[in-house]
Amino acid sequence: xxGSTLPPFPDDVRTHPLLVIDYKLIKAGDVEELNRLxxxxxxxxxxxxxxxxxxxxxxxMFDMGAETMALPLEERMKFEQGDQGQSFGYKKAGAxxxxxxxxxxxxxxxxxxxxxxxxxxxxxxxxxxxxTVNARMENTIAPFVRKGLEVTYVVLNIxxxxxGLPEGTLERLxxxxxxxxxxxxxxxxxxxxxxxxxxxxxxxAHTDFGxxxxxxxxxxxxxxxxxxxxxxxxxxxxxxHAICNIGDALSLFSGGILQSNIxxxxxxxxxxxxxxxxxxxxxxxxxxxxxLRALIECSPIIAxxxxxxxxxxxxxxxxxxxxxxxxxxxxxxxxxxxxxxWAASRGTEHTPTVV
Length: 355
Hints:
Layout: E1 20-22, H1 23-27, H2 31-43, E2 46-50, H3 55-69, H4 73-77, E3 89-91, E4 109-114, H5 115-120, H6 131-134, H7 137-162, H8 169-173, E5 183-189, E6 203-206, E7 212-217, E8 222-224, E9 233-234, E10 242-246, H9 248-253, E11 263-265, E12 277-284, E13 291-293, H10 300-307, E14 315-319, H11 320-331, H12 339-344
Parallel strand pairs: 1-2
Antiparallel strand pairs: 2-10, 3-4, 4-5, 5-12, 6-11, 7-10, 7-12, 8-9, 8-11, 13-14
C-alpha cells in the first residue's frame, strides 16, 4: 500500500480549518449535522467526511494505482487520454499547463477510470485500460465507484431539500442510467528535492469540473484560497477522513449558493516533500446531456439567489459533457496557442488568473 509509513504533517505552515462532517449522522438525517454540512457547502465548499466506510476500498485503489504506475511508461502511454478532451485513461506528467504562461507544466501522472466502464465491465463503454486496471475492475474499482456514488447521492438529496427543489431533482441530473464524466482518479506526484520546485504547483489553480469530489490523501499538498483571501492555505490531511468539495456543476445548478472554491496541489510541506504523494478521488459529474444552468424555475430559493447576483451569469449554454471536454482540452499543453487557451479552460473560479 503506497504511503504506509510517512512523516507527520508539519505544524509550522498556514492551514485552513474545515468542518468535520459525520457521514453516519447525515445518512441518518441528524438535523444538527445536516445543518453543519450545509454551512460547509455554502461557505468554503470543502469539508472533511468521517465514518464514510470506504477505508478498504481506498486502500485497494491505492494498490491499483501503484501497480499501474509500475508498468513501463511505453505501456501506460498506450492508454494516454490524448488531446481531444477525453479524461478517461492515463495522463502523463507534463501534459497539462498549470497557468496562463504555459511555461510551467504539471508534475503529476494519473489513471482515470470511467464510472460507466467500471460498472459495465467487461463491456467497453468509453475505452480500454491497462492490464493492471482490468485485473482490479470488478473487485477494486467498481466497489470504490459504488461507495463514491452512495456518498454522492446522500449528499445530493440533502442539498436538494435545502435548496427547496422538487424531490429527486439533483439525483435525476446525475442519472445512473445515462453516461457521464464521473470517474475515479489515482494520482502520483514524485518526491520534490529541489528547493525551487517546492514553490511550483503540481496541479494548477482550478475549480473542480463536476458536482462533488470525494478525495483521499495521506500527505499534504492540497491548498485552498477562500473568497476574500489572497494567500494559499494548506488543508491538513486527517487519517481516515475524506475531503469533499463542491464542483462547478452544483454551484451553477444552485445559482451560486453551493460554493465551488478554487484550489491547487503543490509539493507536500516539510519532510513530507521527500516522499511520493499519492491521492485518490471519485469525481461525480452530471449526466452528459444535462445543461449547466441555475434551476431557477424549480426553486424560489435559487431564483432569489440568482436575482441577487446580477453581475454573474448562470446560463452556460453548455451541457455537462461539453463543459468537461472544454476544460480538459484547453489544459493540454499540446493545444496551447496562447494565454487565451488557459482562459478557455476555466470554470467558475472567482479569481481566474491566480496560480
